[in-house]
Structure formats: C-alpha cells, structure tokens
Design brief:
The chain is built from 11 helices and 5 strands. With 236 residues, the protein is mainly α. The longest helix has 24 residues. It is elongated and about 65 Å long. 22% of the residues are buried.
C-alpha cells in the first residue's frame, strides 16, 4: 500500500497550497465562490473534480499554484457520493477558505469567537474600499451623498483623510488600523470637516463603511478614498 511518508507529503503539499490560496484569495479579494457555483446548477454544494480545477484556474489561481498543488487541494475535498459518483465538496472548501473573510454563521452565533486573521494575511490595502453591498434604496442614497461630498471636498482641495488620521492617533482612541469609532467619525465629518449630512445619510455612510466584525468602527480609509481627489491631483 501507500507508504506513510507519501501521505505526509501530500498533507504538507495540501496545507502549503491552501495557505497560498487563502493569501491570494484574501489579498486580491478573489470571488472564488462565484466561479465554483457556476458549475453547480442545482446548488448541491458538490461539483465534478475537473470542474473544481477549471474554476480555480478561471479565478486566476493557476498563476499562483502549481498543477500539483491544485490537484492536492482538489483531492483533499473529493468524496465518493456513491461508488460511481466521485465529486468535489466545494462547499466545505469554501467554508475553509472563507474563514479569512468572516465566519459564515456569525449572524446566528454572534458570540462565536472570530479566529484572528493569520498575521501574514494582514494586508493593509484591504481597507482601501468597502465591499459591503447595501439595499438598493440605501445604495442610491449613499451614491447621492457621496457624490455631493466628493464635489465639496474637490472644490475645497483639502483631502479629508488627514483629519481622520489625527482622530485615530488620539491617545484615547481605540487602536484599529484605518478605523475610528462611530462618534469620532461623525464628529470629524460635522465639526472638523464641516460637511453637512442628514441623520439618514450619516446612518447609511456608517453602515457602508463600518467594519465587518466590529460595526462600532468606521473604515475612514475607504471613506476618504471615495471622497478625496485622486492623489495625482493633490501632489501640487
């Protein structure tokens, strides 16, 4: 039969490959789920192994993983659903990979401990934009208010980000890279920046830019990136 050493090798290959894959998915915000689900018309959570490999390639992961590593990942999640039906359990795979984003059942178990992100995944650029999707009505309201603020900031010619940096650097501030608390954010907008927003607009902005796991924090980097003029114009 197979020598134990060989199994160990495969296991190490798999773990190394999965870590690489997680980093790429996390850093580049690869929507890997969408590529896989395309092959699962019945939404069963299973697809054919060859489709699994195709989906990984389509998601651009073959640029970062060797064919052997891709195969090791595929093999690990491949199960026999019946003697003649060998399928890849991509749902479990997604659950394992997406732990780097959020815990899928957090709404049901809000007190669940969110595993700390592996240090090497702490990519500062991940706060550059908010990927949160709002309801259509809120999104419309958000677009309108952000456009208005962008115009005002652009006319003034003073970027807003430094004001938030100051607030975040305050000694009493809760330290979280690129974030300030909701009260700090609102105070900064209304008092320091003197930007007029209604309560409703303020709520929608806070909802859009709040931290996934800690909604009491607002991602001011993404907010600033949206309203501040592009850097190439502010260098003068």
């Amino acid at each position: 039969g197979t020598q134990p050493a060989n199994i160990m090798d495969n296991q190490t290959d798999f773990e190394k490959a999965l870590t690489t894959l997680k980093k790429v998915v996390y850093k580049n915000r690869v929507r890997i789920r969408e590529f896989l689900v395309d092959f699962d018309k019945l939404r069963s959570g299973f697809i054919y192994p060859n489709h699994f490999l195709t989906a990984l390639s389509m998601a651009g992961l073959s640029a970062h993983l060797t064919p052997k590593e891709m195969q090791a990942i595929c093999d690990t999640y491949t199960v026999a659903r019946s003697p003649s039906l060998i399928m890849c359990d991509y749902k479990t795979f997604l659950n394992d990979v997406e732990i780097v984003f959020t815990l899928p059942n957090l709404e049901k178990t809000p007190l669940a401990e969110v595993a700390a992100e592996p240090i090497e995944l702490l990519d500062k650029t991940r706060y550059d934009f908010s990927s949160k999707v709002l309801t259509e009505g809120d999104e419309g309201l958000l677009q309108a208010v952000m456009q208005r603020l962008t115009d005002i900031v652009s006319k003034r010619g003073t970027p807003v980000k430094p004001f938030f940096d100051d607030a975040a650097a305050d000694d009493h501030s809760a330290k979280m890279y690129g974030h300030v608390t909701v009260p700090q954010f609102k105070q900064c907008v209304s008092t320091k920046l003197e930007l007029k927003v209604t309560n409703e607009e303020s709520q929608v902005i806070c909802h859009k830019y709040s931290h996934e796991d800690k909604p009491e924090f607002i991602n001011y980097i993404a907010f600033s990136n949206t309203v501040d003029p592009p850097a190439k114009y502010t260098d003068f």
